[in-house]
Specification:
Layout: E1 3-16, E2 19-32, E3 36-40, H1 47-54, E4 62-67, E5 70-72, H2 76-79, E6 83-86, H3 98-109, H4 115-122, H5 138-150, E7 156-160, H6 168-183, E8 187-191, H7 195-201, E9 204-209, E10 212-218, H8 219-225, E11 231-235, H9 241-251, E12 255-258, E13 263-266, H10 272-280, E14 285-290, H11 295-303
Parallel strand pairs: 3-8, 3-9, 6-7, 7-8
Antiparallel strand pairs: 1-2, 1-4, 4-5, 9-10, 11-13, 11-14, 12-13
Helix pairs in contact: 3-4, 4-5
Amino acid sequence: MTAVLEIEGLQKTYRSRKGVRRALDGFDMVVESGQVHGFLGPNGSGKTTTLRTLLGLIKPNGGRMTILGREVPEHLPAVAGQVGAIVESPQFFLPFTAWDTLSLLADAGGVPRPRVPEVLELVGLRDRAKDRVKTFSLGMKQRLAVASALLKNPKLLILDEPANGLDPGGIREMRSLMRTLSEAGMTVVVSSHILGEIQLICDSVTIISAGRRVAAGSVASVLSHNRSAGVRVRVEPGVDLVAVAEVLRSAGAPQVTAADDHLMVGGVDRPAWITWVLAQHEVWVSELAPVAVDLESVFLELTGTAPVDGVNRQVDESAAATGGAGGWGQ
């Protein structure tokens, strides 16, 4: 496959009274043609800095970047017409309708007017085309931002938190849209905190933490190389779990963690071995359940954003930073 986007050794530092802060510290990233690629990282990890640097909005201190085979920012004008992007909060003229907004952007970008109803249909705003943007919810503004990024029918689409403000139905529609675009040959890079969605829709991922890449590859390979889950073990009520954990460790279990009412055991090839070991000590197992590893647990483990015990967690989206429309969607 051909790489549509390549980043190598990207560096960005900021100076302040507290000293030098490395927002990007030799970051690498490769996105292949026709993929939906997830770009993941906790707040402050360098995701938005990477995207803004890639799009010429921030000047890097070092490294190499290419889009569609052309080095940027040197050749940014040559590839700008083939890239659509949403970065940071959407900004629109609130008294304008969705139709007027996209029509003006189409005229400014030399895009034929018939493309306007096409993108409104794609993002599910056809019936609200004549409504003023000031009446739109946050989720509808997100849809309008995506529509603006799609006007040029770009080869590379970069979406920063496109599901922000969408209800579950809207998130499902956004997922379907990204897959449809990918199947039509468009490459989509999506940054999101909704890790379950990323696992469902993406072909590959890059995970960034503290300005460095900590994992990259197909979703399956990232999961297989970063197995944080194991086997959940419950025993009869009243048994001291700390003592049971020590029994398993002494018998050779590589990873044993005691929770309130169960143990998590990792690194054991045959779960039945756990039952056998405990039976030798007259401890009877009431539950022995493999816990499937998922992208969320791997993400939390790699980025250190929460303690890891192998139990699935839900990322709180209520305080997530908003996505939005950058100038490249115009």
